[in-house]
Amino acid sequence: MITGYDHVQVTIPRDGEDVARTFYGELLAMAEIPKPPALAARGGCWFQSGSAVIHLGVEEPFAPARKAHPAFLVEDLDALQTQLADAGHECTRADGEIPGVVRFHTFDPFGNRIEFQQA
């Protein structure tokens, strides 16, 4: 029986770690967590905020996930949307599609789709 999930992984291009740290670490205020030494040599980086964990893995050739996406739960959706928009990230609201849930989509600097939602 499945009892939860450990993490979600999306891909980034080789040498994209510094850009990822700016977006996920600084803009989204997620804490970078160390990768085990055996995996660190592969590149990429991992981030966590609360119970949400995202692994960014290097993939070559790189192709962003334009449809598949992680969906993060947030406390203040409007404030986050403003913060992302002020940083130059286009946000598309999708309210009303799921009853009782307000949400929006954006893309990380690599073109991976990300959803943020608030119940």
From TrEMBL:
Residues 4-119 form the VOC domain. SUPFAM superfamilies: Glyoxalase/Bleomycin resistance protein/Dihydroxybiphenyl dioxygenase. Pfam families: Glyoxalase. It comes from the Bacteria. PANTHER family: FAMILY PROTEIN, PUTATIVE (AFU_ORTHOLOGUE AFUA_3G15060)-RELATED (PTHR39175). This is Glyoxalase. It comes from Nocardioides silvaticus.
